[in-house]
Amino acid sequence: MFSSGSGNTVIKSKLISRRMFLLSVSKAIVVVGVLGRLITLQINESSKYKTLSDKNRFREWKLAPERGVIKDFFNQEIASNKQVYQIHLIPENTQSIEETFFRLKTILKISDSKIFSLKKKIAKQKPWEPIIISDNLNWSEFSRINLFLHELQGVEPIVSVARLYKDNSSAHILGYVSQVSAKDLKNKKYLKDMSVPGMAVGKTGLERRLDKEIIGEVGFQRYEVNAYGKRIKQIKVDPGTAGKSFKTTLDLEVQKYTSEILADKAASVCVMDIYNGDIISLVSSPSYDPNAFVHGVEQSYWNSLVSNERKPLINKAVSGLYPPGSTIKTLVALSALENKVIRPLDTVKCTGKIELFGEKFHCWKKKGHGIMNMRSGIKRSCDVYFYEVARRLGVDRLSETAKKFGLGKRVLQDFVEERSGVVPSTSWKKKYVGQNWYLGETLHSGIGQGYFQSTPIQLCLMTAQIANGGFEIKPRILFDKTKNNLKDYLKFKNENPGQPLPADLLVSNFDLKPLFKNQENIKIVKDAMYSSSNEPGGTSYRSRLEDKRFTFAGKTGSSQIRKFTEAQREAEVKQEQLKYKNRDHALFIAFAPVSDPKYAISVVVEHGGTGSKAAAPIAKKVIKKVLERHDLRQSIKNLSGDSI
Amino acid sequence: MFQPRSIQSSLSIKDKLFSIDYVLVVSILILGITSMFAMYSTDGGEFKYHTESHILRFFVFFFMFIILSFVQIRFWHSTSYLIYFVFLILLIGVKYFGLTSSGSQRWLNFYFMNLQPSELMKIGLILFLAKYYHRVPIESINKMKFLFLPIFVLIFPVLLVVMQPDLGTAILIGLGGVVVAWLAGVRAKFFAYSFLFFIALLPLAISFLKPYQKARILTFLNPEKDPLGAGYQIIQSKIAIGSGGLFGKGFLNGSQSYLDYLPEKHTDFIFTLFSEEFGFFGSVFILLLYGLIVSRIVRIGNMTRSNFGKLYCYSFATAFFIYVVVNMGMVLGLLPIVGSPLPIMSYGGSSMMAIMLGLGITMSCKVYKDMPVN
């Protein structure tokens, strides 16, 4: 059966060869297929795979850039940076997250709840992305970590840079920075590629306003990593670009001084250069420690801030709304003069109250002031005189003047938290209250009560624009060399009346806008303010500064929180006898020095009582300080190349 | 064929040396040396670990190949069944004494090496069937009763290997056997029926697959579905080959490899590494080298007179070709990952031993090309 003849063998051999031929053909086809695949991968799609290979190879760790500093007018840093010691953890480099945390707990003080939230965060991100375990260690903790580092795989000690605010005086203007929140990422487009652990963004104040430019550009470290994520070698480091630094118009010395004076009062002070609108000082009190927010605010501190009835978190200078009270009388008088409804020497008799439209209107002085004209009406802040002026003027003309001088709209564009206040008029009431205007309300408006709402910075601007002779200025808090030649212009005009302007005063961006019809009227109001502060019987006479260099002209005000009842009025209840919450706000506005006005100031003390007792003394101290530093400030101003 | 037996059996040493196919020998040497460079690169430029033992193995088995070349073809013919049975017993031994590694029981521990009998079975089955079909008269080949034995000797070792489990090797053993039967003249119809039968059995077979084997097949169908899991190997392999481009990243510069993105780079994915470092030209060089080797084996088959020799050489050449193509198809993403080494290039003693044994028998077909086997 198995024997095979030679013939058979030959046939068989031929069959085998035939079949082998078929196999060889199919082999050739297969080889072409393999070759084709090689061509596709290595030639046609090579660049795609090269990219993929690099994506494998390189991994980048972003570096948080250094935030730009914020300086005052004298180049003192008011928001600076400091070195901080942090520990970061790269989850994939640890052998066991649990063990690492356990070990860390024995070395540092980390609460269980913190560990819990860290673990939750780790679960959400990529295993090679570092997470910050602790971002502000003291030196002893940091060195302890370094000592035990060999047992802490995946833990990295990092020396980083964080925000430092040297004192709290400017907390409200600067605002604070804190960790990027999900909301920030959604709302702020410039943060899109900046998700770096430890990155802080401005949350309020200038930090928020300048955030886009001050934050800097994110750097990176590029490493070659192996398949297990282990860094093999560093390929490239880009430390990023530090953010732009900014110079403000503030004077840190004045800020500190003012803030000490205000201490724990719920108050605010605003000082402004009356010619260029530079804000010298803007203090809101009580303050808070902005450093507490940099690394995430502690709950207890936050609660104490929120529950404090003096509202330390609010920037009262721009967000606090107060009826302007008697400080508005300057504008009421001006408006009346401009509209020729009264002459300066026209008199009104004050008997302590008048009855109009079936309602009783009281003067703050129960016995009355007697015969009042405009100068004495302002000097002694006679309400009855101004009831009469307001009655003649009408609310709409008053409203027009008040708006012209800066009330009812935001003064700075820098703070989202700034509020615009209210300048009432008949149409305003119709629109927002939905009712017709009552004549009685005109009288309340005439003494800055009723619907009137203003911020301290608005009152300061109003005062400044009266003080500079009635010209519009644009207040600013960021230093800007340009647009400050109003003073030069006025000086030239005074010295060379009737002559054409020299070319350097005709710069295109300088728009001189008078707010008056007759400048004489401004002078009358200024003179009345002088008498109020410097002549016996003036409401702020007691706070006067006799030194000619510092003499100021001001106007007191107190805005009622609630109306006095007849009974209280009869009993002559003093402000000090009322509950804190029910006391009047004390206001004071002024400009100084009288001989050659340079600065305007507004002071508001919440529930401080009367302007003359609570606010004027503060203004007196601050004005002196500001004027003492005036020459120094001028010398800085003349330095060239000082533009940041 | 009509030469007296004495002439063939009394070849002088000189004759024997002259009749060796030096082109084949040199090709194998070049491939071996190339593989050493590749292996050196897998260890990131270290001789220790893989390179050292790979070089040792290559030369030991290369020497074995040369020695075996001088064993008479008659000997291989007469011991074919015996060799098959020895390998089969070893394979059965694996089931009882085998070493288990990564979930698969494949190796027998001899004190000098861990032997993987399934690799040897690739040659053993070809030898067995070559002899069988050499002896079956041509008119009987397609008779039913002559089909039972080949089916049995094919299925039995394949099942043993499937159960290890080692699907890749099992398929390669089976394919080797099928090739011999095809060459011997078993009707195409029979293969078609078997194929249909196999397809019909597939659902049943799949239910026996281990979860990881199922995952591999699914992964092959869509590797991007799970890029960090089951699809990882194939994606990383394609990235490595593709990023090699025309000229490659340079020797020892294959980033996919030295950064450990490439899995199994010493064994199944050695071609990937080579391709990444030497680019398209390197890949084509390897492909040509294998092509040359296969065609030389086929040429020996053409020259050898006995049908046993022809069947053996053609089958071995085809099986060798299949090993190469399956491995390349796998790393190029054309076939599922089934774990099959690249002959001579891949790290692994048993595979090297089996290939060198196969080549040795081939070469003895060349040296004794005119010797009748019975």
Number of self-contained structural domains of chain A = 2
Structural class of chain B: mainly alpha
Give the low-confidence spans of chain B: 1-7
Q: Note the beta-strand portion of chain B.
A: under 5%
Tell me what you see in this structure.
The complex is a heterodimer of chains A (644) and B (374). With 644 residues, chain A is α+β, with helices and mostly antiparallel strands. Chain A has 2 domains: 188 residues, Penicillin-binding protein 2a (Domain 2) (Alpha-Beta Complex); 386 residues, DD-peptidase/beta-lactamase superfamily (Beta-lactamase). In chain A, 39% of the residues lie in helices and 17% in strands. Chain A contains 25 helices and 19 strands. Chain A is elongated. Chain B is an all-alpha fold. Chain B has one domain. Helix content of chain B is 69%, strand content 3%. Chain B is built from 15 helices and 3 strands. In chain B, strands 1-2-3 form a 3-stranded antiparallel sheet, covered by helices on one side. In chain B, a hairpin with a 2-residue loop joins strand 1 and strand 2. In chain B, helix 6 packs antiparallel against helix 7, helix 13 packs antiparallel against helix 14 and helix 13 runs parallel beside helix 15. Chains A and B meet through helix 1 and helix 2 of A and helix 8, helix 11, helix 12, helix 13 and helix 14 of B.
